[in-house]
Each structure stands twice: as C-alpha cells, then as structure tokens.
Specification:
330 residues, 60s Ribosomal Protein L30, Chain: A, 24% strand
Chain lengths: 330, 330
Amino acid sequence: MILKETVSDIGERALIKMASSIYKEHNNSVDLTDDCAIIPIADEYILSSSDMISEKTHVPHGMTPWQIGWFTTAINLSDIAAKGGNPVGILLSVGMPPTYPVSSFLDLIKGASSCATRYNTSIIGGDTKENDHLVISGTALGRVHKDFFMSRKGVQSDDVIAVTGTLGKAAAGFHSLKNQKKSGEINALCEPNPRIIEGKKLAETGLVHSCMDLSDGLSSSLYQLAELNHVGFEIQKEKLPISKELLVISSQDPTVDELYLSLHYGGDYELLFTASEKDISLFKKKLDEINVPLTVIGKVISGKEAVFICDSNENNEILPNLGYEHFTNK
Amino acid sequence: MILKETVSDIGERALIKMASSIYKEHNNSVDLTDDCAIIPIADEYILSSSDMISEKTHVPHGMTPWQIGWFTTAINLSDIAAKGGNPVGILLSVGMPPTYPVSSFLDLIKGASSCATRYNTSIIGGDTKENDHLVISGTALGRVHKDFFMSRKGVQSDDVIAVTGTLGKAAAGFHSLKNQKKSGEINALCEPNPRIIEGKKLAETGLVHSCMDLSDGLSSSLYQLAELNHVGFEIQKEKLPISKELLVISSQDPTVDELYLSLHYGGDYELLFTASEKDISLFKKKLDEINVPLTVIGKVISGKEAVFICDSNENNEILPNLGYEHFTNK
C-alpha cells in the first residue's frame, strides 16, 4: 500500500517517474527523462538542469569548500554538455548553518565561479538560506541549435556505443582521498571537468543519435539508455578505457577491482553516446584536436532491454545494474 | 577579522554582496541585485530565479506537503512576475530523508504542479536527493520582451511608489495558523498567488520605472530599492492598503499591531513599483479589469537613501528597516 511507503522503499528513479506522471497530467509534453529540460525559442532550445548536493550525503570527507563549489557547478554543466549545449549561466543556491564560516562560504563561491569561468560562463544568480548543514542547489542554463540537440532518445538498431575519456578516474580519486593520499587523482573526483567542448564538437556533426553523461556510473547509464530506447547493449570488456590512475592503484592494492569500479562507480562525467559505426572516425578526429580519447565500447542489440558484457573468448553474461541510486542501499 | 566571522555575523544581504563581487571579478556584467537573472536572446530576455526553502527554517508548523509544493513554486514565480515575465517552466529539486513518506512526496509534487498549472506553466525538470530533512530548491524560468522588462533600477526623482493588492495577508495567515484556527487567511500565507498577470499588464504599458516583489516585507523592500537607486522614499501611513483579514484579527486581539505587520512582515508577494504620477490612472484601469486594487503609498524624495513614514498630521519619522533577513536575528 503506497501510503505507508517511504522514499527509500522505492528509490530515486521510481520517485522521478511518479513525479513525472503528475506533471504530465497537467502538461503532456513534459519529459523528465533527459539530462536537461528544453524550452524552444526560435531555432534554438534553452537548456536547463538542476542538481542538488548535500554535505551529509554527497560530499566525500576531505573535500574543501572551494572544491564543493567547483563540483556543484561542474555537475550541472555536465548536463548541458551532454546535450551539445553552450552554457549561458549558472544559478547557485546555498543553504548553510548560521555558524558556517564566512571564509568557507567565500571559498565555495570562488570554486563555483572558477568552474563557471573555466567553461566560459558565469554565476548569474541564486540564493542563500539557513539550513542545518551545507546543501547546495545549482541550475545550469544553456543554448543549443535545434538541429544539434543530442537527446537521450534516438538510439538506432545498428548503432555502436562510445564513451569519451576514461572510466574510473573518480573511483581512483575516492580511493586516494579515503587513504589520505595527496594525489592528482583526487582532482578527478572533487574537480571534475564537464565535457562542454567535447559535447559541442560531437553535436555539431549532427550525427550523434543519443547522448547522456556518466554521472551515475556506466552500468546505470547503459540501463537508463536501454530502457528509454527499448534496446539492449553488448559491451566488450577488453575495450573499456580504464583510467591509468585506477590501474596503478589496483596494481598496488589487490582489494581494488578496477573492472568493477569502471563499470559501476559514478562521478566520471564522461559522455556516453550512440551513433553509426561509419561516423566514429569523424568523431575521433574531432576529439583528437583537443587530445581527448574516444572509445567504442560495444553495440546495440535487439531483444530485451538488458546489457550484456562480453569477454575476449566471447563469453557473454548479463551486466548487473549497480550504479548509484539515491534513497536505495546501493 | 573576516576569517573568524560566521555567516550569521554579517547576514544574507552582505553575503550576497560578497558573492556578487567575486562573480564580477570573472564577469563584470553579472548583477545579483535584481529579482531575476537575465539572458538576452534576440529581442527578449530569458529570466531565471532560484529560491531555496528549508523545512526547519522557512515552513510554518502546520503547512501541508501540498502547500509546501505550491509555496515553493509560487515564490519562484513571483520573481518572474516582478519583471513582467511570462513563465515558461519550473525546475524543482527536493531533498528529503529516506524515511519521508511517498504519499507526502506526491502531495508536495501535486501542490507544485497545481501552482505551475494555475499560472499557465509546468514543472519541466528537477532533482530528488537525500537530505536530513525536507529542503526544496526551485528555479523559475520566464521570457519577457526587452522593451517590457521591469528592472529594480530606474527610479526617477519625481516618481510615486505604488503597491498591488493588500498588505498583511500573510501576517494574518500566520496568526491564524499559530492559533490553530482553520481559516481562509491561512491560504494567503501558505498558498500565495504570484502577481504574474498583474506584472504583465503593468509591464506592457512600458511606463513602469522600477519594480520588485514584496517577499521580505515592505520596509525591507523599500530600503533595497532606495539603496539601489540612490533615492529616499516618503510613505503615507494612512494610505497603506492593510488587508481586511488583518484588520479583523487586530480588532479582536489587541496584541496584534496591524500597522507594524503591514510594514515589516513579509510573505505578501505583491508588486512594489515606481512610475510617474500621471500614469497611475492607466495602471489602475488595467488592474481594475482583473479586480486587483492598486494603491499609491508614497513618493520618491531626494537626499539620503532612507525611508520616512508620514502621518495625516504631517509628522514625519524614519521608518526602521525591520524586514526579514536570513542569518540575522531579525
């Protein structure tokens, strides 16, 4: 009986589906399944996306206020990147306790502003309010020509699936932070770089069929794309572009499973997209210009909405959907 | 020494000024002084504004989840109204504990969606996340033709200052809620009606010189407008359009000071604007069509950025700035 259920009984994605169906009762064109909401204006879409983070549940211990500011801005910009958009502004609302130091607040603001500037945009508004602990909500705004908008929907049956950059950087950063190492990997976790330029370069070809960012981890993202497009995916294990930072850590610590972390740990903020195999060389050329690798990791398969992982001996097994989901125990 | 200060030592407005100067270092055109941020596109501005509310500090005891949803949406829309904008979408991010009932979450979503629908727009995106207690951040998006945008800046030296509707409705609602009365006044507090239609009607005349909404109370708003425009105001005590709900309550309870509450209690979400006296009859005619009163409450004065209140005997005294400000003890 729904009345007795708590939000942790059903998890974030079920909550969003239920909210979505309420919004749709009022306006049938509402679609919460993409990274951004879109508002058509002339031949463009205005893109908008909100992400909230809470000190208690989303911020690894050891992250500085400057990094919290950068992080919040970056994860919001990542949603604009995934749609091929040009960022045009960020709104940043900060809830904090009355005892929060002014110097920490200013560091947070500087981190946020530095990230916005790095991606050629600005913090243009927001709010500050009292809260028991630090909670930050960001909204990123962007623009994209209608012809270049990359939706999550649009996977074609003979598409391949590809990913920018490498996987497991954030997992490596979390491992280093947990072990109190001062290392460059921590930046990948705490100061992610949204793929704004990469997203625009891919979008402007007009050849991408579907795209999303990898905030929740590869397996979760693949399942979301599969469900939305009513397709399955087959991923090649040996093709996964595991980050060298994670490989170094796993070579030193046998408890670190680099394959598991690359498949299921979130926070890499890479772009995951599908397109025709014939167009991959063009995408690679475009991203080569900015020294960003691009890897085809698998292909679309018909049949059920599931994801399989295949090794070099062609052993094919189902990939569990283990990415992070709020309100669940995953 | 700033390093030892906490945010409660300096208050919300000083924090926003400090944040603003950091953002301006990166982009000199950033302006956080208005109700909305603006992004120019062709002959329009895209308007955006974020407001965060926390169950612990902003929600009166007794407010239902449905009302919390309506309230968050309404206060965000009020910022679009104050600029003369047409709302085009709301993003709603909800932080809540894992134990939060699904039924309460759905009621909150229904309240938010009902408010959006009432003002001819929709919830188009958002986020749900774990938090210790309920915290909601909304972002309202709107559009307005550049010629019709009503800025907070632009007060002219011979302007009068006027307000839509009545003052003290929210204060009356709070009194009723506190005394556990079931009365219509509570709706004014918990389910405010942003002045979207009124804002558009005023804006489309092209004759408004400055405008803001009354979220923080009249005295606070007057001081904000005075500081921003380097002017003073003289308000006529007997002209204040005190709501009849508040007058009824104060007639029954001698501890209720209707003048004090009309001047300093926030939450009425009326529009406060300045214009030439000669244009007031046109504004009144426009708002008469939708049965909304409009009252000239005073005029601009030169000299220092202060607000005076004048009684019918022409006794003139300074109006204290007692509106609500976060992180202070006001």
